TrEMBL record:
<feature type="domain" description="HTH luxR-type">
    <location>
        <begin position="698"/>
        <end position="763"/>
    </location>
</feature>
<dbReference type="InterPro" id="IPR059106">
    <property type="entry name" value="WHD_MalT"/>
</dbReference>
<dbReference type="Pfam" id="PF00196">
    <property type="entry name" value="GerE"/>
</dbReference>
<dbReference type="GO" id="GO:0006355">
    <property type="term" value="P:regulation of DNA-templated transcription"/>
</dbReference>
<keyword id="KW-0805">Transcription regulation</keyword>
<keyword id="KW-0238">DNA-binding</keyword>
<dbReference type="InterPro" id="IPR000792">
    <property type="entry name" value="Tscrpt_reg_LuxR_C"/>
</dbReference>
<protein>
    <recommendedName>
        <fullName>HTH luxR-type domain-containing protein</fullName>
    </recommendedName>
</protein>
<dbReference type="InterPro" id="IPR036388">
    <property type="entry name" value="WH-like_DNA-bd_sf"/>
</dbReference>
<dbReference type="InterPro" id="IPR011990">
    <property type="entry name" value="TPR-like_helical_dom_sf"/>
</dbReference>
<dbReference type="InterPro" id="IPR016032">
    <property type="entry name" value="Sig_transdc_resp-reg_C-effctor"/>
</dbReference>
<dbReference type="Pfam" id="PF25873">
    <property type="entry name" value="WHD_MalT"/>
</dbReference>
<dbReference type="GO" id="GO:0003677">
    <property type="term" value="F:DNA binding"/>
</dbReference>
<keyword id="KW-0804">Transcription</keyword>
């Protein structure tokens, strides 16, 4: 290369970038691809600070290169880029592809450019850089030779993390332009068999050769998949797996658009095939979604019946709400028990008008004993927080089931709605808390008998432990939890998670410092529960454990996603609102806290949650006090005492002991609240260690691991199985199994799902 063309360091990076972008824009306009470069060029930093030079040098260099550098640089046998910085090499490599629209590249030239990209990969990991690399090569790939694509997959082996395509922020015109480019230069040259296969596979996030053969059995699927893997244009092999593929995101969007333009009957067949595949694999959420889109009502409802815990109670709504409305009358009659679950879902998702419409429709259907009993049971269980009619309806359903032997047909809902605390939901009348505890235990026992999942006295112990926690009789609460842990029902994960939650609270209020870290670690371990609704219980439990008495500085970062009301039925919203108010209280956003707490008090009254109202009033009292409005603060505190006094609900006041400590001698307490005021005026919170943040926990856990164990974990997180890790490490499989057991023991976890939870999150944060 001539020394005249060497870029020197004179001016700032912005100047050279501006000149480069202008030149690229001019070249692209001539090649008819202006819209693509207009989108991508402004996001690419071509030169590092050390390599930046003035406008004149850059313009002279690039202009000279345009006239004759391509042949000497790209077609030469040397793979060295003398006198060029990394950024300049990247610029040249892209220009070599993009400013020669009339040139057909040889395979050698394409491999040379691929080598350049691969050589630059480690130093140029900026997402925008990788985006333009892949699109530059892939969208112009057919220029290599008729019917052939360049071998670029070897340069894209880590695109899962580096090649983040532009998804969701393209304008409609830009999207149309990009899709037209792909259609014109690539897709229209494919055979119909390959088009069918690729568009059908766009229904999957990850897929294998077996899935491809299942979705498209009539063609030479193996050969077509091999061709696409070698080309690297549409799909790539997921690193660390033995045959799992993904589409590049922008390519999957393009294929999805092609899929939606196909014949509706063909689309329906593909959806139903995907539904069967997902159902066989136990992916009920995806199966339900695919069957719904395929408009096969019987299949969709059969899937729902088999996976109701995952589909309904997980908080994720993957099927269309209109599915119930769209079901023909004969289908509704045939699947009335499953339809009842969906109508139940409408009620607890807050869609009361739609619920009433569909419930009335069910009542009009001329059905048998089993169907009538199911509809009646639905009516009683959608009478939230009215325990007496709920108990009566459950007992009537149980009698009908016994009389007509209908055990297999009934499914019972979960009373807790993924909420860690049930008394927060069901305490509706001041002075009646203990009576409500007994009724709740009776209702739970009846539902267990209907579902044939009897847990003995486990739930009763749990409800009473929470009662004693709320009312300040903490030794009795610990006794109830001890009895619970000795009962057979303790094996139920929902019981076990809530037990850990209550033990954490009792450890806090009794100052049992040695127990807090251990309990918090145990709760974090439950996040790997197999059932998704149980994972949600664990998430909310851990959230409350930190927010109410922890000192985690990353609370908002950790729990913003968890505290999303859209993921939960409306009874759990009271708990979520308490957590959100706690964040505002800790952040000192008093004006916002006051407004939110007043709104949340209204919500709690609508749900008839006495404890929810108490928390909302105490948050108002704390906000008023900080804002200097002591009289309003005292009034809110007195209202909270009026609600709490009849049952001696002291726990909420303990949590606000620091914020309200100056008010106890001034408050005009109702007579039945005198004991709470007396206790709080003398209360001193027991000292306890700070609750470790999740990041601190992970750092402590990782310090226990050796370098070799970290290598094994890295491979496991990539998706490799024990046998594959053994092959990679060149050891026996039994050695890896023993190493994994040691890792689990050091991290105090039960298996690979928890390992992926911990280290998967670490990787995500690094990105």
């Amino acid at each position: 290369m001539s020394a005249d063309h060497t870029i020197t360091t004179k001016n700032r990076t912005e100047e050279i970038a501006e000149t480069t972008q202008k030149l690229l824009h001019d070249y692209f306009e001539r090649s008819g691809s202006a819209s693509l470069i207009n989108r991508l060029a402004p996001d690419v930093l071509w030169f590092s600070e050390e390599e930046s030079g003035g406008k004149e040098e850059a313009a002279r260099y690039l202009t000279a290169w345009k006239e004759g550098f391509f042949n000497s640089y790209v077609e030469s046998e040397s793979y060295e880029a003398k006198n060029l910085g990394e950024g300049c090499s990247l610029c040249i490599a892209n220009l070599a592809l993009l400013v020669h629209p009339g040139k057909t590249f040889t395979l050698h030239q394409t491999r040379k450019l691929t080598f350049i990209f691969r050589r630059l990969r480690d130093k140029n990991t900026d997402e925008s850089t990788w985006e333009i690399i892949h699109l530059a090569v892939a969208t112009l790939a057919p220029k290599t030779a008729p019917g052939k694509l360049p071998e670029i997959s070897c340069s894209l082996d880590n695109l899962r993390y580096l090649n983040r395509f532009t998804t969701g922020d393209l304008s409609l015109d830009e999207t149309r332009s990009l899709y037209a480019l792909l259609q014109e230069k690539v897709f229209r040259h494919f055979t119909q068999e390959k088009k069918d296969m690729l568009t059908a596979l766009s229904l999957f996030d990850v897929f294998t050769l077996s899935q491809a053969k299942y979705m498209y059995p009539s063609g030479d699927t193996t050969a077509m998949m091999r061709e696409e893997e070698e080309s690297g244009l549409f799909l790539y092999l997921v690193k660390g797996t033995t045959g799992s593929y993904r589409f590049f995101p922008v390519m999957r969007q393009f294929l999805a658009a092609e899929f939606s333009a196909r014949d509706p009957k063909w689309q329906s067949r593909c959806y139903l095939k995907a539904a069967r595949w997902h159902y066989a694999a136990g992916n009920y959420l995806e199966a339900m979604q695919a069957a719904d889109k395929g408009d096969d009502y019987d299949m969709a409802l059969n899937i729902l019946a088999g996976g109701s815990d995952s589909i309904l109670f997980s908080g994720r709504r993957t099927y269309r709400r209109s599915l119930v409305k769209r079901c023909p009358r004969n289908v509704v009659k045939r699947h009335i028990h499953t339809i009842c679950l969906m109508v139940y879902d409408l009620y607890y998702s807050g869609m009361k008008d739609e619920f009433r419409t569909q419930y009335a429709r069910l009542r009009e259907i001329d059905a048998g004993v089993s169907e009538r009993a199911a509809v009646h049971f639905l009516g009683t269980m959608t009478n939230f927080n009215n325990l007496d009619p709920m108990i009566t309806g459950a007992k009537e359903a149980l009698d009908t089931i016994r009389r007509y032997n209908l055990w297999k047909e009934f499914k019972t809902p979960h009373l807790g709605f993924c909420c860690p605390t049930l008394l927060l939901l069901y305490h509706s009348t001041p002075g009646q808390l203990l009576t409500e505890v007994e009724k709740l235990a009776e209702l739970q026992s009846t539902l267990e008998r209907i579902g044939r999942h009897e847990y003995g006295s486990a739930w009763s112990h749990l409800f009473h432990a929470e009662y004693y926690l709320l009312t300040g009789d903490w030794e009795k609460g610990l006794g109830e939890l001890s009895a619970l842990e000795a009962s057979p029902g303790y094996a139920n994960p929902s019981v076990k998670i809530r037990s850990a939650y209550l033990r954490g609270w009792l450890a806090f209020v009794t100052g049992r410092a040695s127990s807090i870290r251990e309990i918090e670690t145990e709760m974090h371990g439950y996040l790997a529960s197999t059932a998704e609704y149980q994972t949600l219980i664990a998430s909310l439990s851990e959230c409350g454990f930190h927010l109410m008495f922890g000192t985690d500085s990353n609370i908002k970062k950790e729990y913003k996603r968890i505290l999303d009301p859209q993921r939960f039925y409306f009874p759990s919203h009271t708990y979520i609102e308490i957590m959100k108010d706690r964040i505002l209280l800790r952040d000192g956003k008093d004006t916002d806290l006051l407004a939110e707490a007043e709104t949340h008090e209204t919500h709690a009254r609508q749900r008839k949650s006495v404890i929810g109202m108490i928390f909302a009033l105490l948050n108002q009292a704390a906000a008023y006090k900080r804002l200097g409005e002591e009289e309003n603060s005292l009034q809110a505190l007195e209202e909270a005492l009026t609600l709490a006094g009849p049952d001696h609900l002291i726990l909420p006041f303990i949590l606000f002991s620091d914020e309200l400590k100056d008010l106890w001698k001034k408050v005009r307490a109702p007579r039945h609240s005198a004991s709470i005021v007396e206790t709080m005026s003398q209360y001193t919170r027991p000292t306890s260690p700070e609750i470790p943040s999740l990041e601190e926990m992970r750092r402590d856990q990782i310090k226990k691991l050796t370098g070799r164990e970290m290598e094994i974990i890295h491979l496991a997180v990539q998706g490799l199985k024990n046998k594959e890790i053994a092959e990679e490490q060149k050891v026996a499989e039994i050695t890896i199994k023993k190493a994994m057991s040691t890792i689990y023991r050091k991290l105090n976890i039960s298996g690979r799902p928890e390992l992926l939870t911990i280290f998967g999150e670490e990787k995500h944060e690094e990105e």
